[in-house]
Amino acid sequence: MDTWSYFHTCLVSIWLHRFYIYSAVAFGIILWIVIQLIIKLRRFAKALAEAVTSLNLPVETSSRNICVFLVATYTDGQPPESAAWFCKWLEEAANDFRVGKSFLQGLRYAVFGLGNSAYVDHYNTVGRRMDRWLWMLSASRIMTRAEGDCNVAQSKHGSIEADFEAWKAKFLTQLQALCKGEKKPCSGKCKKGKCKSLGKGREELRSHELVMEPEELFETSSEEEAGGTDSVIDVEDLGNIMGHMKKAKREQELQEGAAGAGRKEEAVRREMITPALREALTKQVDAAGPRGLHRCMEATPSLACANKCVFCWRHHTNPVGTEWRWKMDQPEVILQEAIEKHQNMIREFKGVSGVKAARLEEALAVKHCALSLVGEPIMYPHINRFVRLLHQHGISTFLVTNAQFPEEIRRLEPVTQLYVSVDASTKESLRRIDRPLFKDFWQRFLDSLKALAEKQQRTVYRLTLVKSWNVDELKAYADLISIGKPDFIEVKGVTYCGESSASSLTMANVPWHGEVVSFVQELARLLPEYGIACEHEHSNCLLMAHSKFHVDGEWRTWIDYGRFQELVREHEQSGGSRTFTAAEYTARTPPWALFGARERGFDPLDVRFQRKNKARDVSGC
């Protein structure tokens, strides 16, 4: 009895202090992310130091030292913790009238920033600011600032590592040139990424030059424009000075506008898949295997996404963006190639032990398409044409969206089942888990749920439970459900997809199936209009359904696919005037799929194949 009392006391203490425990875990995860980025920065710094050492350059005097700054931009444009004090000191020195503007005169420097261009408002802001502050204190650039991009779709060289290697090669060439006296340090007033100090004899450097962002046109004081002299300027001259500055700024904006238009046109023509990205995604899909075996094809018309979720199984190798800006294949091409690739993957299972020949042959004829393999399918500009094309081929459609494109949801034509990923229930937890690109992500999220409520066909909230991240927000989840009024709520434990520098998740964040069941039962108590309908233990997943699908004492959560095809054909032939609802194509849920059934979601007609010499897994999920 004493032992049980002690054990009970410990459990109660843990429960009472769960928020402190959660905070400690969250802090640990954040610390882990910081350490990972610091490791990458140190690896870059070490590689650069080794490369410089290997050149055997003559030792410079202290007055001619060169400082290289490798700095990353963190959340909301802030520097990493290790650089926070230095950045604050540098900013104060650059803006403090008591500090002379020639404070760092004689210092030569180069800046390489690390960031992600998907976060447009804060992309490499720390590196840019540091470059500006150093220049304001009269330090001299030896080369234009360069920026490494974690966004593989926009990275000039396919990855941030490749960006660094390209910059390093140019830096080493520049360093050798400076030592030989072939080139003077940059004056610090370069514009448009071109250095005015380039000599005619060094034109070959241009062929290796990185494509960099234009330098900001700094609005400096009259003292700075006069080269740091103490000359006095008449009040009458201030108008002329400001006029020149405004004219120069207008000219820069016009030039940037033209350049931006050119870059935008180039981006439209750009391929969504780079060779490096194709290789990375191919490895991931091969590792995952054909996740929709039998007659379900998993595909997507868009690899791009507006989120960078912590549990993304692509480990953030797919492109990200808030709008479509890539080359675009036509729906017919996408469907033809998707079916061919799907059939090729199915054929690879021919002769594999446990695979039934009849089912293998049947699987070659695609009957269902899950538009959820990667990215945000609803971003594809011709998504409605693509959906119609699938229906014309007798293929049902299951589309998943991340709730960041409300207008696209409203314009979407009927699909068999429309999912919205509800990965968190509060603004802050959604920011931490989905890491969205849109600044107004929360309003877009809520508007997407409202748009879902307007749909007449089957709608689903998809909740992915991540232990220590989003499992303690039941009341907030219930509030969100009242907004979107989904037909179904699918609750699933997160799947651990291996270690990655892009995510801090571990197996400790994967809930047990019993924990998922407990979460759903507690959520059901808050939602009197919903009941727990189905369970699939192997997928660590449960399904809640609206009471309107509980007809004559039995659940009707399954789909009559033949009836759906009839309804969607009538809808298209009528030009959209013939509407239909989810209740018109339901089917009876088989007993083995119901929650609480002995089979726990396993079809008794399917027998799991156990490999020889392999221990039977009885652990469950």
TrEMBL record:
The keyword Oxidoreductase does not apply. Its cofactor is [4Fe-4S] cluster. It comes from the Eukaryota. GO terms for biological process: wybutosine biosynthetic process. Pathway: tRNA modification; wybutosine-tRNA(Phe) biosynthesis. Keywords: 4Fe-4S, Iron, Iron-sulfur, Lyase, Membrane, Metal-binding, Nucleotide-binding, S-adenosyl-L-methionine, Transmembrane, Transmembrane helix, tRNA processing. The chain crosses the membrane at residues 20-39. It catalyses: N(1)-methylguanosine(37) in tRNA(Phe) + pyruvate + S-adenosyl-L-methionine = 4-demethylwyosine(37) in tRNA(Phe) + 5'-deoxyadenosine + L-methionine + CO2 + H2O. CDD domains: Radical_SAM (cd01335). Its EC number is 4.1.3.44. One of its GO terms (molecular function) is 4 iron, 4 sulfur cluster binding. It holds the Pfam family Flavodoxin_1. Residues 19-172 form the Flavodoxin-like domain. The keyword Heme does not apply. Residues 289-533 form the Radical SAM core domain. InterPro entries: Aldolase_TIM, Flavdoxin-like, Flavodoxin/NO_synth, Flavoprotein-like_sf, rSAM, rSAM_sf, tRNA_wybutosine-synth, tRNA_wybutosine-synthase. Belongs to the TYW1 family. Probable component of the wybutosine biosynthesis pathway. Wybutosine is a hyper modified guanosine with a tricyclic base found at the 3'-position adjacent to the anticodon of eukaryotic phenylalanine tRNA. Catalyzes the condensation of N-methylguanine with 2 carbon atoms from pyruvate to form the tricyclic 4-demethylwyosine, an intermediate in wybutosine biosynthesis. This is tRNA 4-demethylwyosine synthase (AdoMet-dependent). It comes from Catharus ustulatus (Russet-backed thrush). The gene is LOC117005885.
